[in-house]
Amino acid sequence: MFERRWIWFAPILIFLMSNQVFAAKNLRKVTVDTDRLALGDIVRNAPRSIAGLDMGPAPKPGKDRVITGKQVRTRLKKAMVKTKGLRIPGKTRVRRASQNVNELTLRKHIESALQSQMPDGMSYDELVLRGGMLLPRGRLRVEVEMPRKVRRGLYNLKAHVYAGQSKPQTTMVRVQFRSDVSASREVIERGDAIWLKVKTGKVVVSTRGVAQQDGRMGQRIAVMPRQGRKMLYGTVTNAGVVEMDL
């Protein structure tokens, strides 16, 4: 009796399993770098005139999301866009590209932001943050929420971390501020020959330049490179040294 039932059930089971394998092979996979999805990310042959149609939020960095052909057609219908000629996949797995930013790298960017945002005459002794961050792909930039008036003492500050054109993610930073008389004095004077360090990712290129204005530690000043006619702007990091990121 059992053997007869198995004879009838086996073909059905094989059919269902083959359909699942076929569906998995035909699942289109795409990777995006933006906060929002566009029609062109999902439908390859979407004309330029409609490729930018918003399809909703992208997954979080490192995560993925499946979008069905029915969802795409529903969105097109709502936008009053014709589907004729569009090769809409049955299912699309959309993955958000990401990068792991370790604590040391993150600390470096936060320190750079603090130096450029601190008021004259202030410095810090201690900076504490806990762990790295999983972020979208793109160049990193940090903005620290500074208090209206910075005085000596311990502060818990919000650091907004940007990656490329994505919305910022926020992490908390503990900073011990102190008065620094030396920071209020110019360490570079206008006309001084200085070293200009240009950073592009992990690559640092140093060149000679001439300061176009006086500068204190952490202050942003204008520099004219010896070889070049374009004015550049960087942050004073030491006596006779200005750094800038590209």
How is this structure best described in words?
With 246 residues, this protein is of the alpha+beta class. The chain has three domains: 24-97, no CATH class; 100-183, no CATH class; 185-245, SH3 type barrels, CATH 2.30.30.760. The protein has five helices and 18 strands. A five-stranded mixed barrel has the order 13-14-16-17-18. A hairpin with a 2-residue loop joins strand 13 and strand 14 (203-211). It is elongated, with a radius of gyration of 27 Å.
Pick out its properties.
246 residues, alpha+beta, SH3 type barrels, 3 domains, 5-stranded mixed β-barrel, 4-stranded antiparallel β-sheet, 5 helices, 18 strands
Could you describe the largest sheet, including whether it forms a barrel?
5 strands, mixed, barrel
Low-pLDDT sequence parts: 18-25
Placed side by side, the strands forming the largest sheet appear as 13-14-16-17-18
Helix content: 10-25%
Query: How many independent structural domains?
Result: 3
Alpha-carbon distance between the two ends: 76 Å
Mean pLDDT: 86
Beta content comes to 35-45%
Number of strands: 18
- The secondary structure category is alpha+beta
Helical stretch tally:
5
Order of helices and strands: HEEHHEEHEEHEEEEEEEEEEEE
